Amino acid sequence: xxxxxxxxxxxxxxxxxxxxxxxxxxxxxxxxxxxxxxxxxxxxxxxxxxxxxxxxxxxxxxxxxxxxxxxxxxxxxxxxxxxxxxxxxxxxxxxxxxxxxxxxxxxxxxxxxxxxxxxxxxxxxxxxxxxxxxxxxxxxxxxxxxxxxxxxxxxxxxxxxxxxxxxxxxxxxxxxxxxxxxxxxxxxxxxxxxxxxxxxxxxxxxxxxxxxxxxxxxxxxxxxxxxxxxxxxxxxxxxxxxxxxxxxxxxxxxxxxxxxxxxxx
Amino acid sequence: xxxxxxxxxxxxxxxxxxxxxxxxxxxxxxxxxxxxxxxxxxxxxxxxxxxxxxxxxxxxxxxxxxxxxxxxxxxxxxxxxxxxxxxxxxxxxxxxxxxxxxxxxxxxxxxxxxxxxxxxxxxxxxxxxxxxxxxxxxxxxxxxxxxxxxxxxxxxxxxxxxxxxxxxxxxxxxxxxxxxxxxxxxxxxxxxxxxxxxxxxxxxxxxxxxxxxxxxxxxxxxxxxx
Lengths: 265, 226
Fold this sequence. Notes:
The structure holds two protein chains of two kinds.
Chain A: H1 2-20, E1 24-31, H2 32-49, E2 51-58, H3 60-68, E3 75-77, H4 82-89, E4 99-104, E5 106-109, H5 118-126, E6 134-137, H6 143-152, H7 158-164, E7 165-168, H8 171-179, E8 185-189, H9 190-199, E9 210-212, E10 221-227, H10 234-245, H11 247-255, E11 258-259
Chain B: H1 4-37, H2 43-55, H3 58-68, H4 74-83, H5 91-117, H6 120-127, H7 132-143, H8 145-160, H9 164-169, H10 180-189, H11 193-225
Helix pairs in contact in B: 1-5, 1-8, 2-5, 5-8, 6-7, 8-11, 10-11
């Protein structure tokens, strides 16, 4: 009697789980800076296409390593262009799917500061005190950190500034260093500040004291996406990439702190 | 192969592990002694507090240290006026973090050592008129030697492998906060797998050697003491 009940129960569980498998589920490896954006878009995406997204976020380099080792991801949304290209070169990704889905924008942020013109901000880098620190994502591997370094290089006091740089593991950490007051200034993605002003709307002014670096000040931060070759859902993966490139979504991205991608490539 | 920066990271890691262990032994011995004899109602609660760093992920611990020692609040302010630096991005900062992070690994063996020892030796010596200070230094410490060695070994080994906490509060400054695990992480992130492998090999060989020496030391003491 007891066992019979257990069998019925297990049978029911199987029925339930079989039902849940029905929609196509896409496993997406997404760079941490884009995770919240994709999470906000995923409902809309599912409504339009019937494809469900399951997101795994992390540092792009780590996700790249996991895909190389056979992690079961269908699509890879990187924070840079190098890693997806590497995957294509190693024949681990579908080369026709490779596309830039967003352009990152870099800002120099100082909490609670009034928005000011270009000269003013560079001046503020020259008049830092002994104790002051500037947070930056590690330029050795983080695209936003590399862009920040490029922007700093032309400055006359570049050497002094380098001594003040604190290299964070990723842009989120660079943000935390400034947000907690341990660093006075920081180079962070605009999208992160947009996110923070939505999340912490009571102190929105804190996240509006930034200077948007002109795109001419650094190399373009192209975030590229690619469909993983091993995936059995390549078509669905391409649907996601096409969706991200649609004018409607690109318009939304502009509000979230990215520059829209020019589609005529 | 292994760059001078990596050697610097190795030395920094060893320095951090040694200092952390030393500080924890100095704090841990008297407090474990006290806790072993304490029978009040808060005993279980205090033990739970000590075990807490085991439960919290190091990155989470690091994040809250960063919040707690923010120069925007009184704790961070006091720290800054006392040490002259911010807690983040300094060696003293990661040292403080390591002391908290490795605390249970040193305190638990000491506590159980004192508990097993019981009160009998101490009471006998007291009965013979030995003052408390002398009992602690000349009787309890020698009897506790095996526990002290395993506490030191665990604390040292645990700090060698510390990563998450330093990642959160360190700021990756070479020679100051860039410990071995962080250097390794940087290599992996930059796809310099070869350098990462070499560094990992150094870490493993060094740890096995250091631990072998410590355990051997521990065993020879036990045999010699019989």
